[in-house]
Amino acid sequence: MTSTPKESTTKVEPWDGAKPYLLENYKKFDELIKSGAPKQFEGSTVANQSNATLDALSGTESLARNGNTSALTNATNAVNGVMTQGTNTQANSTLSQLQQQMNFGTNPTDAIAKGIANGSTVGQNYSNGAAGTAAGLQNYSNGAISQFQGMANYLNPALAQSQGYGGYTNAAAGLQTNQANSLAQGNNPAMDFLKNTASGANIGNNPYLDRMVNQQQDNIAEKLKNVTNPGIDSQAAAMGRMGSGAYARQRNNAETVAANEMSKVATDMYGNQYNQDTANQLSAAGQYGNFANQDVANRLQANQALAGTDAQQQQLRQAGTSLYGNLADAQQSQRFNAANSLSSAYDSQQAARLGANANYAGILDSQQSARQNALNSNRDFQLAGANLASNNYQNSIANMLSGNSQRLNAANAANNQQNAVADQRLNAAGMAGQTYANQYLPYQQLAGVGEARDTRAQDVLNAEIAKWDYDQQLPMQNIANFTNLLNGGGYSNTTTPVYSNTTGQVLGGLSSLAGLLSLCDVRTKVFHEFLGYMPAINGERVGMYRFSYKDDPTGERHVGPIAQEIEAKIGGDTVVEIDDIKYVNIEAMIKEVA
Fold this sequence. Notes:
Layout: E1 6-11, H1 19-34, H2 51-66, H3 70-84, H4 89-100, H5 110-118, H6 144-151, H7 157-163, H8 171-185, H9 190-198, H10 209-239, H11 245-354, H12 360-437, H13 441-487, E2 493-498, H14 502-509, E3 517-519, E4 525-535, E5 541-549, E6 558-560, H15 563-569, E7 575-578, E8 581-585, H16 586-593
Antiparallel strand pairs: 1-2, 3-8, 4-5, 5-6, 7-8
């Protein structure tokens, strides 16, 4: 049966010499608190933006609202113009005419050839005048012999003129050959620049990147050294926690955060630079391929033009050679016919002489033979003329086809030129976006300068705020330090219940230790509320609770820790055990957590 406890109060107070100073410092501390100390920094905690930043923002906004967009407008107009432009009217008209101009007219030799095929009356009515005077033919001299002798050496007047046609040279062939050789040996000067970038040689070669990374990391280190760490030191000093575990953790955390920020700066900047370099490499590779394809296309086009000119030249040479051969054949035919006629004249003359006494029928046969020879001679001349007319007709067709080929090339060149101009306009339109974006470069550089100045201004302001806070905390910290010095150790008024049961007897037997030991065994308490943590010097935290004792019928509430938790986390002499009940050594615990 538990009896109603009695209370025994023991007071531990500071020594008399310290009391006046304690009262004075308590009064000063109370006056500081009542006056609003520590006061908040009175000025703005955010530094004003520098003129460079303000100018950069204003310039960028003005450029975005009222900037020169003529390049974009011109690009849009160029694209619309290319999309809506019609075809080359003159070139298409030429092509249409060439497609319809396929009627070469009637061959002028057709009528002659038909007449020869149907027969001719030239020479068929020949009448030999010697028929009536056959006797006088013994001394007959054929008057055509001298004429036929001259015709045996006949020279065609067109033969010499056509002789040089087989070596015809097109005046454009040399120029086109030089152009094709120049394109084959030439090289676009932009290819060397693009090739170096496209090969990846410029990846990671920004000479300013390391300096930029070092500058950013130096700024972080400078801020840690001159702002963050002094702020932590100031707060720790103001609270009298210099050298404590909490102070060490704050310093370590600050340095860890700074190191992470420095690493992140390097990773982000190097990563962004690498992405930009690889994007430039891909873009250069695409442009390099386009230029290479354009060079190949130019070479093919020049070679095709040269091949076309060579083919035309060869055709004209072949036509000239054919004409020369035909004229030579006609000349030879004329000589051969003349020789045949001469031979026939000799034969006729000889027959007339030998057949002077022949009958009239022989004379008629000779007359008929002369008629046939004349007819053959006339037909040979007609065939030669028909061949010459046919050749002239074929030459006219070849010349017309050659002219049409030149017109076709001109029409194709006009269309190609129009397409080339459209490609150039589209390329210029594609560069308009970059040209417009380049207007922002000066403001971007100015914004970087402004950001550096803003950071510096904020650092200076933060230093002023830290000094202000330090000055505000200094009087209160001095009072706290002086008070701790005057105390020299713990003192308190402790009311300890004395029970008639076993626990009470133990406490009664320890009356001489009142104020030094506190009953904190978890088995003796009824817990009502968790209040928070009390830090220890080794970095641990001890929980604080609102509780009452199980053996206390009044249910009075107390605040304190649990002995088992202090023993586990702090150890040492902070917990003692008497009759299997744990007590907290107040003095030892204060030394551990102070």
